[in-house]
Amino acid sequence: MPIKILMVCLGNICRSPLAEGILASKLPKDKFIIDSAGTGNWHVGNKPDERSIATAKKNGIDISHQKGKHFNTSFFETYDYIYVMDNSNYDNVIALAKTENHKNKVQLILDELFPGENVDVPDPYYGLQNGFDMVYEMLDDSCTILAKKLIEKHLQLQNII
Ligand code: 4NP
């Protein structure tokens, strides 16, 4: 069974689509499924913001096929790990969790890079293209660490057995 990972932001058109594309590019597709969703429902079914698509493309990643999804409680069962982009997303997702097991699945994505510092990925929606490039760099650094951890945890064990 592949490990399922969900990236969450507010609109699911700027940050979490980038996080989905970046993490997916660092992990084997047959072993890991990466998705994204928003805590808001405004962009359900839409493709990511053109600025996120452009930033990803510049870095060799195609996210244009992604479709916006709205986070709901069933996602706590579907996904093994839920990474949120900022503290507000964290509060919104945790408010929907019904069990400790659900709560324990939720982590800030930048905790990988800055453990325990509660750093947010800034929302680039109201800014310019360079804000999206900055978000890309932060997510790329964090996802490099995360991908290494996930491979160590879930794949090296299989190789031994
Ligand atoms: P995101 O950015 O959470 O990174 O996708 C936003 C996109 C759209 C809106 C807010 C944040 N919005 O209000 O429509």
Structure overview:
This protein has a four-stranded parallel β-sheet, sandwiched between helices. It has 161 residues and is of the alpha/beta class. The longest helix is centred in the C-terminal third of the chain and has 26 residues, at 129-154. It has one domain (3-160): Response regulator (Rossmann fold, 3-Layer(aba) Sandwich). It is globular, with a radius of gyration of 15 Å. The chain has helices at 15-25, 50-58, 75-78, 87-94, 100-104, 129-154, 156-160, and strands at residues 3-9, 32-38, 81-84, 106-108. Helix 1 links the parallel strand 1 (3-9) and strand 2 (32-38). The mean pLDDT is 96. The chain has seven helices and four strands. The structure holds 4-nitrophenyl phosphate. Residues 9-15, 42, 123, 125 line the site of 4-nitrophenyl phosphate.
Task: Report the sheet-strand fraction.
Answer: 5-15%
Silhouette: globular
Tally of extended strands? 4
Biggest beta-sheet profile: 4 strands, parallel
Mean pLDDT: 96
Explain the layout of strands and helices.
Elements: E1 3-9, H1 15-25, E2 32-38, H2 50-58, H3 75-78, E3 81-84, H4 87-94, H5 100-104, E4 106-108, H6 129-154, H7 156-160
Parallel strand pairs: 1-2, 1-3, 3-4
The structure holds 4-nitrophenyl phosphate.
Q: What attributes characterize this protein structure?
A:
161 residues, alpha/beta, Rossmann fold, four-stranded parallel β-sheet, binds 4-nitrophenyl phosphate
Outline:
With 161 residues, this protein is α/β, with parallel strands linked by helices. It has helices at 15-25, 50-58, 75-78, 87-94, 100-104, 129-154, 156-160; strands at 3-9, 32-38, 81-84, 106-108.
